[in-house]
Amino acid sequence: MRILGVEIPDHERAEIGLTRFFGIGKTNVKKLAAMSNINLNTRIKDLTRDEVAVLMKSLESFKIEGDLKKEIRENIDRLKAIKAYRGIRHIVSLPCHGQRTKTNARTRKGKKKTVGSLTKEAWAKIETQQKAASTNSNK
What is the mean pLDDT of residues 9-26? Predict the structure, then answer.
């Protein structure tokens, strides 16, 4: 079933299926069900057209999907613009909430880059490049 542009599998219970909306978690699902008088144990395929219509009407009171993503992006851009600590951390792709970065944070920092001492293979590669550059400059 497709509700407000989000595909929800028919076999899922309403409590699980409604969390497919970005910005709707378990707490908001309970509020949503109370607002639209839907049983959370009902399967998505068993919802009537009236229940879906009431559900869509209730979803309008929540900030979800594109609107929420836009607000989050604007907040991050504002932090970057005023050069706040968290904004600077976003700019240089480091964790913003105080996590350690010496050993972890690979998700945020990306692939490991070696700094400092080089391996024998790396030294050999650099030396061959230097030799090739010096022979080209002598010609």
Answer: 92
